[in-house]
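Dear support,

We are seeing what looks like truncated structure output for some complexes. This example has two components. We would appreciate it if you could run it in full and send us the complete token output so we can diff it against ours.
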Amino acid sequence: MKKKEAELVSRAKNGNREAFEILLKKYEARTYSSAYRILGNRSDAADVLQEAAIRAFQALPKFSGRSTFGTWFYRIAINLCLLKLRKQKRAPISLESMTTVRKDDGEEQPFEITDWSHNPAASLANTELRELLEKKIAGLPDIYRTPFVLYETEDLPVKEIARILKISESAVKTRLHRSRSLLREKLSTYFQHLKKHRVAQY
Amino acid sequence: MVIICRRYRISLSAYLENELDANRNRLLEEHLIDCPECVAVLETFRKTIALCRNLPLLQVPDELHSRIMQILEREFQPEPPAIRLIIRRKTTKKRRGKKTKIKT
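Here is the complete output from our reference environment:
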């Protein structure tokens, strides 16, 4: 497998677009998914994938092969995502606004704690939940979302994330914890609504 | 939320990653025995992480893939074979020249 990839890389280095297309096909879904989760929308994710592919094809002759092609390509895309985020400088969302729910009378109250972890609807086979989770990850404040995506969905080690984001390892861990807490609360709200809806049905 | 619970809940990530020292680990587990609310938070926290880790990859739209390949085709035309041959000949000549110099 590795040999086959090395062969493709070597052909692509000589400008062979067919070989590059095979490599792109292999890694584009992972790159596109991460870009979407980091940037929060498909249009920006598409721009990043396109730019990363062009840059990778251009820079291939300089690719030393110290890492795998996939890792190298992925790093190009992540750097482009970070660049885009810095340019966008989205308005930060207050943590409080994400950890409280608004009642009908406008008064805010903290989430009620229920254990929904064994609820049959708590599965990725539940399309509604899957879409909600994607949406909520995309809605996390930038500073939390990027380390979260790199760690939870891309499996990068904390040390590597700290290096990429130029922050300390403990800052990465704090941000990971906050992201998880925020998402847990969002899912808790979903399951509360689900419960109320079901009760109302009977 | 009771203040004591808040103190334990900020350690949940570290607990799940096995990063708590033995003493703090023991204290948290003792608290969990008496606090069903914190158990619920822990279980849903664990479930949230599992759901996120298993999210399927998004599919790249076919149009996007084709557009990328079209751009590569347009922007990076391979050098015509004749030019490559000329470049190769020139380099070979240069190398030969250098070799001769060294010999003499």
